[in-house]
Amino acid sequence: MLDMNTNRRDLPPEIARRRTFAIISHPDAGKTTLTEKFLLFGGAIQMAGQVRAKGEARRTRSDFMAMEKDRGISVSASAMSFDFKEFRFNLVDTPGHSDFSEDTYRTLTAVDAAVMVIDGAKGVESQTQKLFEVCRLRDLPILTFCNKMDRESRDVFEIIDEIQENLAIDVTPASWPIGIGRDFIGCYDILRDRLELMDRADRNRVAESIEINGLDDPKLAEHVPANLLEKLREDLEMVRELLPPLDPKLMAEGSLTPIWFGSAINSFGVKELMEGIAKYGPEPQIQRAEPRQILPEEDKVSGFVFKVQANMDPKHRDRVAFVRLASGHFERGMKLTHVRSKKPMAITNPVMFLAADRELAEEAWAGDIIGIPNHGQLRIGDTLTEGEALRVTGIPSFAPELLQGVRAGDPMKAKHLEKALMQFAEEGAAKVFKPAIGSGFIVGVVGQLQFEVLASRIELEYGLPVRFEATQFTSARWVNGARQAVDKFTESNKQHIAHDHDGDIVYLTRLQWDIDRVERDYPEVTLTATKEMM
Ligand code: GDP
C-alpha cells in the first residue's frame, strides 16, 4: 500500500502513484537547484550540476537559447519524469519570465499541484505572487519550500505572515528551522517528529535523520545547543497556538499550504518536501471536458495538448506537442483520434523526458506527460481520445496586450514570413492576425520581450530578418454571435476586422470606448478577451 493521503484509493496503482506538478518561483529563488536535487534523489542523475551542464550544452546549439541565457530567463518549458520511492514524479517546468504568463497558465493546466519556492531572505516576491494568482485560478494545491535557510534569512513567523497576507492562503509548517543563518543546524520535522541535521561539509549528502519522541525527548539536547533548543520549544508552542494543523482536504482545495524549510544547494529539506509531495500529492485529478468530464481511471486513453515546442532538435525540423494524459493506459503504437480533425493518428514515436534526455515512451498512464513529434497537426488545446468526441476545456487563449505590425526585411519573402508566423501562432508563442484590408500581419503578445524573442527566432529558424513596427491598434477582441449578426458587424467595420490563425474573427481597436460602442450598437455581437482553444 502506498503511504499517501488520498480520498480516491480506488485508482489503479499505476495511476495512484503518479504526481504531476510544477515549480513556481521568482528568478533566483532556487528553482533550478531544487530541480537538480529532485532528480538526484529521484535517481535520474548521478551528480548534481548535470541539469545545468546539459542545459548549457543545449543552449549553445542556438543563439536563441544563448539569448535566453543572457537574460537569465527560461523561455521554453519541458517535462521531466523520475521515480521517488514507489512514486513516479512528473515535473513540468514553467517558464520563469512574466512575459510568458500565458504559456505558464497553460502549463499549469497540465499539473495537479505546484511547489512554490521562496527565498528565505526575500519572502514573497513579485513573480511568485503573479504565478500564485494563476494557480489560484485553478485552485491548485500548493506546497511551499522556503529555501536558502543556510544564509541569513528573515524571521520565520514574519515569512509565514507575509505568505498568509499577500497570497491569502493559510500556512501550516511541516518543518521548523533550528537556528538562523550561520547558526542554522537543521529542522525539526513536525509531521514525523524527527530531527534533520544539515551537513555543511557535503552538499550532496542527505541530512542525518534522528527519530525523536516529542519535544521532551532527551535525545534532542544531544544534538541541539541549549539556547537553540529553548527557542525551538518556544517557537513550536507558538506554532501550535497560532497556526492550523495540516488538513489534507484544505490543502487539496488550495486554501492551506504546508511549508518546508531547507537549503536546496545543501540538499537539505528536499527529501522531506518530496515525501510531502508523495504523501499529499495529489494523485491525477478529474479533467474538465465537454460534453462530460474525464476520470483518470477510465480504461480508454485520452489526453490534451498543453504546449507545442518547435525545433527541440535542430537536426529535425520537428515540433513536439506535449500531451497530458487525462485517462487510461497508453501504449506506444496506439491509434488515437485527433478530435478536432476527427482523424486517426498512430502514435509511434512518443517521447518521455527522463532527466534531460528524451526517450521513447513504451507506455504511459493518466497523469504522465508525453511528447508527440508531429508536423503541425497538433495544436494547443487539442484533445486525443480512442474515438469519443471529447473536448478538454479550460485552456484559454488570452487577448494580447501589445500589438505590432511585422514586415519581412525582404518584401519578396512575405510567404516565408507568413509560414513562420503561423508556426509561432500554433506554438502559442504569439497571436497572429491578418487584417481584412491591406497586406501584412499584426502580431500580438503579452510582454515586449516576446517581440524580441520572435524576431530572433524568425531570423534563426527561417533565415528571415524582420522588423516590428507600431500599429494604430492596441487591443484585440474575438467576435462571437449568430452568423448574420457577425456578418453585418464585420461588413460595416472592415477596417477593424482581422482573422487569427484559426480563421476566427477578431476586432482590432485602440480604444476601450470603441469596444463599449460595439456592445451598445450591436447587442447581438459579443467581444471577448479570451477564447477557448480547440
Ligand atoms: P532559479 O533562478 O530559481 O532557478 O535559481 P537557481 O537554482 O539558479 O539559484 C539561484 C542562486 O542561488 C544560485 O547561485 C544558487 O547556487 C543559489 N542557491 C540555490 N539554493 C541555495 C541555498 O539553499 N542556499 C544558498 N546559499 N544559495 C542557494
TrEMBL record:
The keyword Protein biosynthesis applies. Keywords: Cytoplasm, GTP-binding, Nucleotide-binding, Protein biosynthesis. Pfam families: EF-G_D2, GTP_EFTU, RF3_C. InterPro entries: EF-G-like_DII, EFG_III/V, G_TR_CS, P-loop_NTPase, PrfC, RF3_C, RF3_dom_3_sf, RF3_GTP-bd. This is Peptide chain release factor 3. It is found in: Cytoplasm. Residues 16-285 form the Tr-type G domain. Coiled coil: none annotated. Increases the formation of ribosomal termination complexes and stimulates activities of RF-1 and RF-2. It binds guanine nucleotides and has strong preference for UGA stop codons. It may interact directly with the ribosome. The stimulation of RF-1 and RF-2 is significantly reduced by GTP and GDP, but not by GMP. GTP binds at residues 25-32, 93-97, 147-150. Belongs to the TRAFAC class translation factor GTPase superfamily. Classic translation factor GTPase family. PrfC subfamily. It comes from Sulfitobacter sediminis. Its main location: cytoplasm. Signal peptide: none annotated. The keyword Protein biosynthesis applies.
